[in-house]
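Q: I'm writing up a methods section and want to include an example of the input and output format. Could you take the sequence below and give the corresponding predicted structure tokens, formatted cleanly so I can copy it straight into the document?
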Amino acid sequence: MKSTVILTLLLGTFILACSTTDSDRTEPNPNLAVTVEASPLQTKLPSLIATRDINETKDLLSTTLLTTPTSAPVPTIKPTQLPDITPTREVTEFFKPKDYSEFDSSLQDLFQSAVDNEFIALEEKSGLSIAVYTEGKTWTYAMGEADSNVEMMVNTPLMVSSSSKTFLSALILSQIEMGFYKLTDSLETLLENHPDFALFELDKVNLEVTIEQLLTMSSGMADFSHNMAGKSGSYKEPTWSPFDTVNLIQSSYSPPGKFQYNDTNVVLLAIVAEFFAEEPLADLYRKEFLTPLNMTAVILPEEGIAWHPNLFNDRAEGFTSPRIAMPYTDVSSWGGTGFGNMIQAAPFELGYYLGAVGRLRYACCGFISTPENVARWAYELYRPTGLAVSESVRSQLLNSFSPERVPAWGVTSESYGYFVSKRTFKLSDSRIITAYGHPGGGGGYSSVMLYSPDLDLSVSILANSEMSFRGVCGPEKSMNCIASEIFSAYSLTENH
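A: Here is the clean output for your methods example:
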């Protein structure tokens, strides 16, 4: 009983921390609460773990495979029982061999120096992994630790954080192109036939807002992440629906129009996407993007929390896949002191942690992958001839920026559009270039993905710490500094 109380308090602290640190402490994360009786649509979505004694949880998480459930009714779950889920997915293969060529060795040296100089100067960090990509050519590099005495490698899976949002806006615009709905359609028009439509609390959810207002973060609806009490208890529920997340909103909405970055908008869009496609979000991403591009990722929470016990059990022996990098941050609220491993500081294993974070990051930030996959995604999404989306969808994405400048994510200002940011970099030769992408972070992880059309080059950086300290290159955040140095080095090559 004592350990259960401790776990509850610690996961409550975790949810608070993630909601205030994601995307350099400006980006809230979604979390989920109590669900009602499962609808036909909900039964397609997976259940997550119920509350339990922590020692029992540790034992089960190292031996139990949790994946996507069948469409059978959700069973009643006792407080000490994991949901009975029949595995339907095979183990995710993150690391498919790809026939990429290499950059010139001298350029690789410049890339590595840029990473080393900045990373070494940071006061608090664990590990970092990076990929640079242009058509058919890549450079990957990793340094630091994935865990104590475990080297970070280029094929170590990491949480992608809010760079994941770029998949959702691409999906929404692709569905619009297919004729599912329009940018000007309202939530009421789109979801009035949804079996759970009546669950919306109309004093908090403005059903008149449009798809475009949700995509531009201008719906006027409050951020559900501010409901700390509701979030801290939600991980204990055996079932979940995105509607539970929306109903965590505590205050009435304001008139739409003003930019406010929050994930209420993201969850509502995901509900629309799943409803019209009649498929879970993870399946849509895999079908529309990952498989055609030969990319690999796992998407929380739809694909479960322990689909491969050895992937998440940091103490497992005989694992065949690289372990996901452990999250590092200030662990003073986790039972530890100073900067350290959140999982080691708290009395639960990574699989249990990801069970909560999967709900917290639904639709907004739930990808787990490697920088090579993310860099390729940025390239294929934003490049004029990229393969991720049609020319029409890409045009909509890159013409969606508001004239309002957004002072976020450690940069002076940038423009924000349909879950894509636009900013400039001043290179070492005084050249000014534009880059499209999205940052992310929180909960012991951080990320950035950028594509420069001027250089035809993409950069993805993932880390298992929040990388909030500035290094050697000035006022910018460390990841932005590294990206700037990479762009500068590449611009000085004979081809540029």
